[in-house]
Amino acid sequence: RPVPYPAGFTPFYTELDLLSNSVVDLIDENKLDEAEAASKKLLQEYPDQVDGFERLGQVHEARGKWSEAADCYQKAADFARTMPGFDPETAEYYLSKAKKIREEKK
C-alpha cells in the first residue's frame, strides 16, 4: 500500500509497526495461520499495545469467526480504556466494531 510521502521524507518503522503491518499483509495473502501467529506474537511481545487484540480480531473476521472477532475488539476497547495514552475515541472505535459484528453476524 503505497503512501505518499513528501520529497526527502523517509518513514521510520519500529519492530512493532513491522510486525503489526505484517498481519495485515498476511491476511491479504490469505495466510491466516501465519497472521494468527503474528497476532499472538504481538500480544506476547507488546503487552502494552493494543495492536495484538486488533490484529487478532481481523484474523478472526477473515476466517468468519464473528464471535471471536467481536471478543477481540471488546478486549481492545477494555485495554484502551484502562491503559494510559489512549483517548476515549479509541475505546469507542473498538466497542463499535464489536457491537456491529455482534448485531450483523448473529
Relevant terms:
mainly alpha, 5 helices, 0% strand
Folded structure, characterized:
It is a single chain. With 106 residues, the chain is mainly alpha-helical. Helices cover 71% and strands 0% of the residues. It has helices at residues 15-28, 32-45, 51-63, 66-82, 88-104. The chain is globular, with a radius of gyration of 15 Å. The termini are far apart.
Uncertain parts: none
Quickly count the helices.
Answer: 5
Mind summarizing the main beta sheet?
none
**N- to C-terminal distance:** 32 Å
Strand tally is 0
Rounded mean pLDDT is 90
Shape designation: globular
Return the string of H and E elements. HHHHH
As a whole number of angstroms, the C-alpha radius of gyration is 15 Å
Proportion of residues in helical segments: over 70%
Beta-strand residue percentage: under 5%
Secondary structure category: mainly alpha
